[in-house]
C-alpha cells in the first residue's frame, strides 16, 4: 500500500473516518473492502496491493471504532444502518457511484444491510466466512444461542456474551498491558478447534482471558503482525470494537431491521460466498442457510 493514499473524511454524523483510497485505471471498477473484528484496513493489505496493481480502484475504511476512525463509547452509535450510511458518505465524498464489495466477518453483516438499503451502489458482492444475513427484526441473543446449540451441538457465538459485557474492556486492557496476550492466543490459535472448545461455548472466552490461558499462535500470524495489530487496536482501546457486539447483543438493530421493506430483501446482483472449512464460529452450513 502507498503511504500517501490514506485519507480522512467527516461523515454527516460528525465522526471522522480514516480510509485507504486509490482511483481506478483503464475503466476498471472500484472495490470496497469491509473488515471485521478485531481488524482494520490493514488486514486487506495483500488484496489491496494485488488489485490496485491491476488497475482496480480501492476504498478500504477503518470502520467505526477501529484504527484512526472515531470510536464513540455509546453502543447505540454502532447500528448497522447508521454505519452503512457512514460508508455511503465516504463513497459520495469520493464521487464513487458503483463498487464491488468484499467483506469479512462483521463486515458481512454491514454489507448485508448496505445491500438492503443502498443496492444501487453495488455491482457485485463477496462474503468471506460469514454469508449474507437477512434482516432480523426480532433478534434475541439467547434464542439464537439455543437454536445454534440444538442444530450444531454447541453455542457458536457464546463469546459474544463476554465481548458485550460491561467489564470486557477493562479485562482486555488489563490483559494487553500485562503483556500476557492470552486474548490474542484465543483469537489466533495454532489449532482452529480452540474456537469450538474455548471460545464458542458460553463463559469460556471470559474464563480464558481471566485465567490468562495461552496457546501458540497460528503460523500465519507473525509476532510483527500481532504487535502491529495490538498497537492499532489499543490506540483508542477495544471498546469501539466490542460495541459492534454490544449493539447486536442488546438488539439495538431490531427497529431498523423491522423497517426494511420486503422488496429489498432479494439481492439481485452477482454474489460470492467464500467459507472457511476450519472456522468454528462462522460455519459454512449456517452461511448457506
Low-confidence blocks of residues: none
Radius of gyration: 18 Å
Biggest sheet strand line-up: 1-2-4-3-5-6-7
The CATH superfamily of the largest domain bears the name: Alpha/Beta hydrolase fold, catalytic domain
Average pLDDT works out at: 94
Give a count of the beta strands, DSSP E runs of length 2 or more: 7
The amount of helix comes to 25-40%
CATH architecture of the largest domain: 3-Layer(aba) Sandwich
Number of helices: 13
Question: What overall form do the CA principal axes indicate?
Answer: globular
- The total number of structural domains is 2
CATH class of the largest domain: Alpha Beta
The ordered H/E elements are EEEHEHEHEHHHHHHHHHEH
Structural class: alpha/beta
Proportion of β residues? Answer: 5-15%
Major sheet description: 7 strands, mixed
Spatial separation of the terminal alpha carbons? 36 Å
CATH fold naming of the largest domain: Rossmann fold
Plain-language structure description:
InterPro entries: AB_hydrolase_1, AB_hydrolase_fold, Epox_hydrolase-like. Keywords: Hydrolase. Strands 1-2-4-3-5-6-7 form a 7-stranded mixed β-sheet, sandwiched between helices. The model has no long low-confidence stretch (mean pLDDT 94). The protein has 2 domains: 1-137 and 255-289, Rossmann fold; 140-250, no CATH class. It is of the alpha/beta class and 289 residues long. It is globular. The two termini are 36 Å apart. The protein has 13 helices and 7 strands.
Amino acid at each position: 500500500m502507498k503511504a500517501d493514499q490514506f485519507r480522512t473524511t467527516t461523515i454527516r454524523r460528525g465522526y471522522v473516518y480514516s480510509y485507504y483510497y486509490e482511483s481506478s485505471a483503464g475503466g476498471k471498477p472500484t472495490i470496497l473492502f469491509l473488515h471485521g473484528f478485531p481488524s482494520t484496513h490493514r488486514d486487506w493489505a495483500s488484496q489491496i496491493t494485488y488489485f490496485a496493481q491491476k488497475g482496480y480502484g480501492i476504498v478500504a475504511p477503518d470502520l467505526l471504532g477501529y484504527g484512526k476512525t472515531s470510536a464513540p463509547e455509546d453502543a447505540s452509535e454502532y447500528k448497522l444502518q447508521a454505519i452503512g450510511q457512514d460508508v455511503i458518505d465516504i463513497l459520495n465524498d469520493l464521487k464513487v457511484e458503483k463498487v464491488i464489495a468484499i467483506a469479512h466477518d462483521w463486515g458481512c453483516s454491514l454489507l448485508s444491510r448496505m445491500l438492503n438499503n443502498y443496492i444501487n451502489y453495488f455491482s457485485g458482492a463477496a462474503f468471506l466466512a460469514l454469508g449474507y444475513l437477512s434482516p432480523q427484526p426480532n433478534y434475541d441473543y439467547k434464542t439464537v444461542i439455543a437454536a445454534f446449540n440444538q442444530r450444531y451441538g454447541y453455542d457458536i457465538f457464546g463469546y459474544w456474551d463476554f465481548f458485550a459485557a460491561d467489564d470486557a474492556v477493562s479485562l482486555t486492557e488489563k490483559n494487553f498491558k500485562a503483556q500476557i496476550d492470552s486474548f490474542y492466543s484465543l483469537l489466533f490459535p495454532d489449532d482452529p478447534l480452540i474456537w469450538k472448545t474455548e471460545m464458542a461455548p458460553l463463559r469460556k472466552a471470559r474464563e480464558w482471558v481471566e485465567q490468562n490461558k495461552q496457546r501458540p499462535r497460528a503460523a500465519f500470524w507473525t509476532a510483527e503482525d500481532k504487535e502491529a495489530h495490538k498497537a492499532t487496536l489499543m490506540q483508542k482501546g477495544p471498546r469501539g470494537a466490542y460495541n459492534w457486539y454490544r449493539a447486536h447483543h442488546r438488539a439495538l438493530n431490531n427497529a431498523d431491521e423491522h423497517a426494511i421493506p420486503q422488496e429489498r430483501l432479494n439481492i439481485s446482483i452477482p454474489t460470492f460466498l467464500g467459507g472457511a472449512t476450519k472456522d468454528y464460529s462462522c460455519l459454512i452450513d449456517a452461511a448457506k442457510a
